[in-house]
Design goal:
Blueprint lengths: L3 H16 L8 E3 L10 H6 L5 E4 L12 E2 L15 E3 L5 E5 L6 H7 L2 H10 L3 E5 L9 H5 L4 E5 L6 H6 L2 E4 L3 H9 L4 E3 L9 H11 L4 E2 L5 H6 L6 E3 L6 H11 L1
Parallel strand pairs: 1-2, 2-3, 5-6, 5-8, 6-7, 8-9, 9-10
Antiparallel strand pairs: 4-11
Length: about 250
């Protein structure tokens, strides 16, 4: 279950039915990957009553001692570098993605002389733009990049193939986009969409940027920060899935 609207009522019902000895079940709560330094509303309500509370960021262990860590990043920062790195290449296209909503600020920044100049200097083969349901209409990139592989679309059922084939992904800081790109081992530059509520995107992006798993910038500094990235720039490879740790904890519970 996901979100307080469904998760909280059902979990509270299970807790009460357990207390009344009507059923016998265990409840497990896994905090969102986007919650780095704070707990979600669901966690604040349910963490005191669940049988197992799992967090994905080491910083949350300090906020609730009874929580269990199943995140991918090592608890000790000095052991976070496995020696494997991701480098930027320019033999394919740049993928721009705004996710399932709209982010006209990013699309407009891409449709600029500064971005087109940066793109041409780097020598990329194409530009694929997933613009979502935004209202901004691209003009400059369509006229200035006629000789390149330029594709513009609103949505696709999955961006996995686009991500896998791209040289660089530039997009909003949604958890789905971030995880899909990091798991594919592709260079990622994120621009948090500050118009979204609670600013979860910025918190997640800044933490991963600090760990050197991706690059991050405010929209107003996009071009300046892109200029700093070269083929010699390297990012850490994101650690593998936390599934084995989760399985061990669940076995211990049941």
């Amino acid at each position: 279950m996901n979100g307080p609207g469904t998760c909280v009522p059902i979990s509270l019902s299970a807790f009460l039915l357990n207390k009344l000895h009507i059923i016998n079940c265990k409840t497990v709560l896994m905090e969102s990957f986007t919650c780095v330094h704070h707990f979600s509303l669901t966690a604040k309500i349910l963490s005191p009553i669940v049988d197992l509370f799992l967090v994905k960021w080491p910083s949350l262990l300090q906020l609730k001692k009874s929580s269990q860590y199943i995140g991918r990043l090592p608890l000790l920062p000095e052991s976070s570098d496995n020696g494997k790195h991701i480098s930027l290449t320019t033999n394919s296209y740049v993928l721009i993605t705004v996710g399932s909503t709209s982010f006209d600020q990013l699309i407009e920044a891409v449709d600029s002389k500064e971005f087109v100049s940066w793109f041409k200097k780097r020598g990329f083969a194409g530009l694929h733009i997933q613009k979502g349901r935004g209202k901004y209409e691209l003009k400059l990139v369509l006229s200035e990049l006629k000789d390149y592989d330029v594709q513009v679309f609103e949505y696709k059922n999955s961006l996995n193939e686009e991500i896998t084939r791209a040289s660089l992904i530039i997009g909003h800081a949604g958890a789905g986009t971030i995880l899909d790109t990091l798991e594919a081992g592709k260079p990622l530059f994120v621009v948090p969409n500050s118009s979204l509520m609670n600013n979860h995107q910025a918190e997640l992006a800044e933490e991963l940027n600090e760990g050197h798993y991706l690059w991050c910038s405010h929209i107003s500094h996009l071009i300046q920060e892109l200029e700093k990235i070269t083929c010699d720039s390297r990012l850490k490879e994101f650690p593998a899935s936390e599934t084995p740790a989760l399985q061990l904890l669940l076995k211990g519970l049941f």
